[in-house]
Automatic annotation (TrEMBL):
It is found in: Nucleus. The gene is KAFR0G03110. GO terms for molecular function: mRNA binding; tRNA binding; U6 snRNA binding. InterPro entries: La_dom_prot (IPR045180), La_HTH (IPR006630), Lupus_La (IPR002344), Nucleotide-bd_a/b_plait_sf (IPR012677), RRM_dom (IPR000504), WH-like_DNA-bd_sf (IPR036388), WH_DNA-bd_sf (IPR036390). The lineage of its organism: Eukaryota, Fungi, Dikarya, Ascomycota, Saccharomycotina. One of its GO terms (cellular component) is nucleolus. Residues 107-191 form the RRM domain. PROSITE patterns: HTH_LA, RRM. Keywords: Nucleus, RNA-binding. Residues 12-101 form the HTH La-type RNA-binding domain. Transmembrane segments: none annotated. This is HTH La-type RNA-binding domain-containing protein. GO terms for biological process: tRNA processing.
Amino acid sequence: MSSSRRNSFQNIEFTPETRRECLKQVEFYFSEFNLPYDKFLRSIVNKNNGWVPISTIVTFNRMKKYRPVETVVEVLKESKILMVSEDGENVKRREALVIDKDLQNLKKIIVMGFPTDKENMQEILEKWFDDVSSGSITQVRLRRERGKKFNGDVIIDFKSVEDCNAFYDKYPEADPLTFEEKKLSLVKKKDFELQKQATKAKNFSGSGQRSRSFSGHRKNMPKLTQESNDEKKDDNEDESAVI
């Protein structure tokens, strides 16, 4: 790691709280809530037997404030999830991440209808979702069009299936979730996946025009603004953060 990289930002005091925040952020990057959807980070992991240069990690926007880098390395050595290489240059998971996509989808909800013309929506919605969920949401991902413009849809991940179901049931159609007095629509990710599979099957059968409606618990559920035949491509364009 070059000296210029280490000293390119102002050093801060690493209080116990700062150390916890720093470690939590890096552990999030390698977690089931981020790594499967982070195309850039995943490509490095796959090429280097799981290892990622710490010099790369500290260039991420949410890590730039943590300096000096030598202290970041010390903090990462305290992790029970991650391990640091002997030379202090790289970090990786102690155990390879095994993804159960079906279980993950049971802990996700897609929330649709947010304004698309506001700035700093990632930060705004992280705080807003943390408040309305009483801290049960672990990740907020803004879905974006091909031009990277926010399309008004957000995928939220919960700590557990129970938390996800409780949040969904809390906001029925008769008493919907609202943001700045605008009604939002909710659909469980698993229901969206089932609808997408049904739509594909219908298209392959040659039965005609593609369906535009959602099936599931709620009637007339709107479709996502940008639907893709390749879910990974969509997910890789989302902006996400730990909250």
